[in-house]
Design goal:
83 residues, mainly alpha, 3 helices
């Protein structure tokens, strides 16, 4: 899958990850899984004064999961089979 080609693309992917976490804030298992995978990385993220994410604080763990969130749109839909 294609990586983001500019800052706007990377920020878009990061905000997809952020939105997913906010939507599942009450799901303890989901949050525990994300914190297990990204805890240290999320702790080091910083925002600029204008509210944008400081790109130099994004490490490879966060970057790969954020890109995966964007790549999901390229997957074919899952079809349910009848038994």
């Amino acid at each position: 899958m294609p990586p983001p080609i500019n800052r706007a693309g990377m920020e878009h992917n990061m905000y997809l990850l952020s939105d997913e976490m906010q939507q599942n804030i009450n799901n303890k298992d989901f949050i525990a899984n994300r914190l297990w995978a990204l805890g240290d990385s999320i702790e080091h993220l910083r925002l600029l004064p204008n509210g944008r994410i400081e790109l130099s604080t994004i490490d490879e763990k966060v970057r790969s999961i954020a890109n995966m969130m964007d790549w999901l749109k390229y997957l074919p839909p899952v079809l349910k089979t009848k038994k």
